[in-house]
């Protein structure tokens, strides 16, 4: 028969399929959606204060020459509580940190700050996640490293772990 | 592997979707939504239609094409997750402000990548996805039609 | 004791599978006839013992024996009895045992009932079935033992998840499983026939009822699953092109292609190699689907703990079975004659096009489902969803339906275009009426729904054409089956088209007394009241829908809150209220309370949809299943067997 090779086509397709399966079993899916808005200027926004006694946040304030962190958090987010000590450590290391509180009520933010400390210079209230969406952020907590010109340089998804703290300090130092 | 704190970063009220999709094949142990929920009311346009039916229809079509970032298995049009509600608000507000669906999609893709759209673009990485079925059909058609009896006089000689 | 007995039965059944395999192989290699005689009884005994083991597992769940790890993890003594029973297969180990039981029982049933095949082909088939079950026995016994005891029994079990306590969810998986695993029989028949090279009408006729039977269960499973998602999700969607849905659709498509190609092989002794390959593909796709879901390969990562060991085990099993069968196919199919030739314009020709389109759709669904993995390997994260499938599969499905119009009207071997054309005017007229009606009065209708409804009109009329001018009492059951199933496709298609084209949506924040217009209904929001269920609390809304013709209907959607279990947050679900009318369904969901500007919370989010003809989708699915059942009744010749038995009995009665 002339077209004998055709009979091996199903086997070959199966082989490709199994290749994909093996690849996936060896490299488990990365379910985090990284922001693509990296090395781009901070989107324009002007957020009101999230709670009394702490200033709100404007995007223009983020380009004052000092590299900094913008922490996207929420009082109702349980992992954010676990992140508080690391943010305190960063602040102690001299890193300026601004916060964006997602879908939060002023009294809840105040309670959160009382309980877990306030490392933030300013906290903007993002009531409808619009700044979060403009940043390409897909959850809380997330932290963005901003250089002195207000350009987003890196996104950290999830809780900042204790051993990441010196690394972040060094990176911000390098942006100066 | 993503660390545990990452995987529970956001409340998944949309857990019901996983239950359903699951049900379609097998029942299995489920992750019950495990984190707290925010207590703010939904954004105005999360559960409210635009006044102009034509605008609403455009917004609806776009929302059905955008993937929910939190629940991952649903479009933002059928998700109860707060972030999906906020994204619906974003889409409807922009449509109401006169932006076209294509502009809004470009805006979102610039932030979340092509992942956010259920309608993948045609590019190097997706060429096989779009052309694969056509190739398959062409190859199959070529094989099948080669075997039809040619001409009316050809009798049942295929038994060989 | 029950658990130990169950485990022992499993081991004995596994040994019997081993016996069938070894005896069958030796016989086929020229061993003595006595070896062949062993295979049938061993297959039957294996089926009975595995079923008994599954029965014992159910008994453990019914008795809430918490000393068994599986029961302790997945059940609770306070669960209603029905959910205790359903809990048996609502977990990994139990569902694998169910899978294995169906596999073994199928082998037993072939051994008992199959009388038409040559002895060596039957032995080869049973040996193949035994080989399949042996792998899954190994999987169960070595990596997923359902009967494992705990060193210390806990006071009660952990399985109280309220979301899983749903009748639809309890009986949906077993239905699909029967369909999935039923295809294993076709797989084994194909392997058996390849081994003995007996590929012809006898093999096709033996396989046919099994294909039909599994396909009925797959159709029912998918239809029921779609309806379940529709009412349970609270957004009114009936198909999401979700990966988990797709992997249930793929074996269904393979089954649909197979039952059409097997018809050609059985009737005309053509398409032989192709039918064999489809039979292999069908069960392969069942295994691939189960693997994808089981190993947490795609999206459902939130729900499945990925177990690399089990995933690897299943992958290795699949590689052996699928790779082995396809290699055998590649080596043997070349020597299988193609069978009788035919013209393009003939019944066979139309069935070839049907198969080509069905397998293309199958391939594209598989491609779309797995492509995100491929793209990720290339460094891009993408999502493949409804827009892709609608654009690519939609047109193919419509062409497929048009082929379905022509196929049944063509005669075998060769037909002539004019004769076909002469049978179509009424169908074309029906399509034209629908098309013009929609264009003139339908308003703005999308191109795909428009074509869908038009094609549905053509198919609805044309599908009945094989009955015209026939004596209906003498029309064979399989013809009735075909007509019913094809008509069902038209009904389903019309439902899909009408729902997508004419759906009306209203999202409002309503205060008691407010009236909302949707479709032809004026819906009055009367108010809400709290209600308590067995394991939840709920806010129940009362809506009164009135039609312009004066009909009045009360709808009661609920927003339920299930308390958090063991420290987890409460779970909220929406119970939609459905009002079924001849023209469609009104779908109502009660959402969150809305705080007014003055701080009072008397308004509620209400979502209302008028979904024209939506229930035709599932009616169509049911008709397809009914049609396949009629066909099965005709093909399996159960009626004939029953009649023969009765006449034999009556003869015996009158015998001296």
Keywords for this structure?
heterotrimer, A: 176 residues, alpha/beta, 6-stranded mixed β-sheet, two-stranded antiparallel ribbon, 5 helices, 8 strands, elongated, B: 160 residues, mainly alpha, 44% helix, disordered N terminus, disordered C terminus
Task: Give your account of this protein's structure.
The complex is a heterotrimer of chains A (176), B (160) and C (656). Chain A is of the alpha/beta class and 176 residues long. Helices cover 35% and strands 19% of the residues of chain A. Chain A has a six-stranded mixed sheet with strand order 1-8-7-4-5-6. In chain A, strands 2-3 form a two-stranded antiparallel ribbon. Chain A is elongated. By secondary structure, chain B is mostly helical. By secondary structure, chain C is of the alpha+beta class. In chain C, strand 2 and strand 3 form a beta hairpin. In chain C, helix 8 runs antiparallel to helix 9, helix 9 runs antiparallel to helix 12 and helix 13 packs parallel to helix 16. Chain C is globular and about 90 Å long. Classes of the chains: A alpha/beta (176), B mainly alpha (160), C alpha+beta (656). At the B-C interface, helix 2 and helix 6 of B face helix 7, helix 8, helix 9, helix 10 and helix 12 of C.
Helices and strands, with pairings:
The complex is a heterotrimer of chains A (176), B (160) and C (656).
Chain A: H1 9-26, E1 40-41, E2 46-47, E3 57-58, E4 68-73, H2 78-92, E5 97-102, H3 106-116, E6 123-126, H4 130-135, E7 142-146, E8 151-157, H5 165-175
Parallel strand pairs in A: 4-5, 5-6
Antiparallel strand pairs in A: 1-8, 2-3, 4-7, 7-8
Chain B: H1 4-7, H2 15-23, H3 53-63, H4 82-96, H5 101-112, H6 127-145
Helix pairs in contact in B: 3-4
Chain C: H1 2-28, H2 33-62, H3 69-74, H4 81-87, H5 92-113, H6 119-143, H7 167-196, H8 201-233, H9 243-268, H10 272-294, H11 308-332, H12 347-377, H13 386-406, H14 417-422, H15 425-441, H16 447-464, H17 477-502, E1 504-510, E2 515-518, E3 521-532, E4 537-547, E5 552-555, E6 558-562, E7 571-575, E8 577-581, E9 584-594, E10 603-612, H18 615-636, H19 638-654
Antiparallel strand pairs in C: 1-10, 2-3, 3-4, 4-5, 4-6, 6-7, 8-9, 9-10
Helix pairs in contact in C: 1-2, 1-6, 2-4, 2-5, 2-6, 5-6, 5-7, 6-7, 6-11, 7-8, 7-10, 7-11, 8-9, 8-18, 9-10, 9-12, 10-11, 12-13, 13-16, 15-16, 16-17, 17-18
């Amino acid at each position: 028969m002339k077209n004998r090779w055709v009979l091996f086509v199903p086997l070959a397709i199966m082989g490709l399929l199994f290749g994909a399966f093996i690849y996936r079993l060896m490299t488990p899916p990365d379910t985090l959606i990284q922001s693509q808005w990296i090395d781009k200027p901070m989107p324009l926004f002007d957020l009101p204060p999230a709670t009394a006694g702490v200033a709100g946040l404007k995007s223009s304030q983020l380009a004052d020459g000092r590299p900094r962190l913008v922490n996207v958090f929420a009082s109702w987010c349980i992992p954010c509580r676990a992140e508080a000590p690391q943010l305190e450590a960063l602040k102690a290391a001299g890193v300026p940190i601004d916060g964006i509180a997602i879908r939060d009520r002023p009294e809840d933010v105040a309670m959160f700050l009382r309980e877990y400390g306030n490392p933030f210079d300013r906290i903007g209230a993002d009531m409808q996640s619009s700044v979060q969406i403009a940043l390409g952020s897909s959850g809380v907590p997330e932290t963005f490293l901003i250089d002195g010109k207000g350009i987003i340089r890196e996104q950290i998804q999830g809780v900042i772990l204790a051993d990441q703290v010196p690394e972040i300090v060094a990176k911000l130092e390098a942006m100066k | 592997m993503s660390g545990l704190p990452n995987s529970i970063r956001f409340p998944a009220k949309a857990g019901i979707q996983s239950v359903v999709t699951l049900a379609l094949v097998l029942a299995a142990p489920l992750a019950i939504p495990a984190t707290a929920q925010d207590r703010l009311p939904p954004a105005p346009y999360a559960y409210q239609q635009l006044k102009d039916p034509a605008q609403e229809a455009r917004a609806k079509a776009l929302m059905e094409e955008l993937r929910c970032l939190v629940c991952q298995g649903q479009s933002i049009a059928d998700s109860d997750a707060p972030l999906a509600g906020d994204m619906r608000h974003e889409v409807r507000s922009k449509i109401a402000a006169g932006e076209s669906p294509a502009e809004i999609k470009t805006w979102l893709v610039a932030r979340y990548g092509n992942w956010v759209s259920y309608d993948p673009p045609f590019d190097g990485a997706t060429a096989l996805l779009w052309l694969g079925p056509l190739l398959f059909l062409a190859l199959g058609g070529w094989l099948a039609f080669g075997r039809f009896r040619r001409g009316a006089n050809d009798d049942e000689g295929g038994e060989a | 004791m029950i658990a130990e007995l169950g485990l022992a039965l499993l081991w004995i059944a596994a040994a019997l599978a081993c016996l069938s395999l070894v005896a069958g192989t030796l016989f086929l290699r020229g061993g003595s006839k006595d070896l062949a005689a062993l295979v049938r009884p061993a297959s039957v005994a294996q089926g009975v013992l595995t079923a008994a083991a599954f029965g014992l597992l159910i008994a453990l769940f019914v008795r809430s024996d918490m000393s068994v790890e599986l029961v302790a993890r997945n059940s609770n003594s306070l669960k209603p009895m029905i959910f205790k029973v359903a809990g048996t297969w609502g977990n990994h180990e139990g569902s694998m045992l169910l899978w294995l039981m169906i596999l073994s029982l199928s082998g037993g049933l072939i051994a008992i009932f199959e009388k038409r095949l040559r002895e060596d082909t039957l032995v080869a088939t049973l040996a193949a079935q035994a080989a399949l079950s042996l792998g899954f026995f190994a999987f169960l016994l070595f990596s997923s033992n359902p009967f494992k005891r705990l060193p210390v029994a806990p006071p009660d079990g952990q399985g109280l998840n309220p979301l899983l306590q749903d009748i639809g969810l309890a009986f949906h998986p077993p239905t699909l499983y029967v369909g999935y695993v039923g295809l294993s029989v076709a797989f084994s028949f194909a392997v058996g026939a390849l081994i003995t090279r007996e590929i012809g009408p006898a093999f096709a006729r033996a396989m046919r009822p099994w294909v039909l039977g599994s396909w009925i269960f797959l159709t029912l499973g998918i239809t029921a699953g779609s309806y379940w998602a529709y009412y349970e999700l609270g957004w009114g969607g009936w198909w999401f092109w979700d990966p988990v849905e797709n992997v249930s659709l793929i074996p269904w498509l393979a089954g649909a292609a197979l039952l059409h190609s097997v018809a050609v092989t059985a009737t005309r002794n053509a398409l032989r190699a192709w039918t064999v390959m489809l039979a292999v593909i069908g069960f392969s796709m069942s295994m691939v689907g189960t693997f994808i879901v089981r190993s947490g390969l795609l999206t459902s990562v939130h729900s499945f703990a990925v177990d690399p060991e089990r995933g690897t085990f299943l992958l290795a099993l699949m590689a052996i079975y699928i790779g082995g069968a396809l290699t055998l196919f590649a080596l043997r199919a070349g020597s299988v004659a193609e069978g009788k030739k035919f013209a393009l314009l003939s019944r066979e020709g139309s069935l070839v096009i049907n198969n080509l389109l069905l397998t293309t759709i199958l391939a594209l669904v598989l491609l779309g489902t797995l492509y995100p993995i491929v793209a990720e390997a290339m460094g891009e994260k993408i999502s493949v969803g409804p827009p892709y499938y609608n654009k690519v599969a939609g047109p193919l499905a419509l062409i497929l339906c048009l082929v379905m119009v022509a196929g049944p009207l063509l005669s075998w071997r060769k037909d002539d275009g004019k004769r076909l054309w002469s049978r179509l005017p009424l169908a074309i007229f029906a399509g034209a009426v629908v098309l013009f009606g929609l264009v003139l009065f339908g308003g703005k209708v999308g191109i795909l729904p428009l074509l869908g409804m038009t094609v549905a009109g053509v198919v609805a009329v044309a599908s009945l054409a094989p009955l015209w001018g026939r004596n209906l009492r003498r029309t064979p059951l399989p013809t009735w089956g075909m007509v019913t199933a094809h008509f069902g496709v038209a009904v389903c298609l019309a439902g899909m088209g009408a729902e997508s084209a004419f759906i009306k949506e209203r999202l409002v924040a309503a205060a008691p007394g407010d009236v909302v217009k949707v479709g032809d209904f004026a819906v009055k929001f009367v108010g809400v009241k709290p209600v308590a269920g067995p394991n939840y609390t709920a806010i129940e809304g009362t809506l009164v829908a009135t039609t312009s013709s004066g009909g009045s209907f009360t709808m009661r959607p609920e927003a339920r809150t299930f308390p958090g279990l063991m420290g987890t947050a409460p779970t909220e679900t929406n119970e939609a209220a459905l009002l079924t009318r001849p023209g469609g369904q009104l779908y109502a969901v009660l959402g969150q309370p809305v705080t007014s500007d003055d701080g009072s919370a008397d308004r509620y989010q209400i979502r209302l949809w008028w979904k024209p003809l939506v229930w035709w989708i599932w009616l169509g699915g049911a008709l397809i299943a009914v049609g396949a059942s009629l066909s099965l009744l005709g093909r399996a010749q159960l009626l004939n067997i029953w009649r023969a038995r009765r006449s034999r009995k009556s003869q015996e009665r009158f015998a001296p």
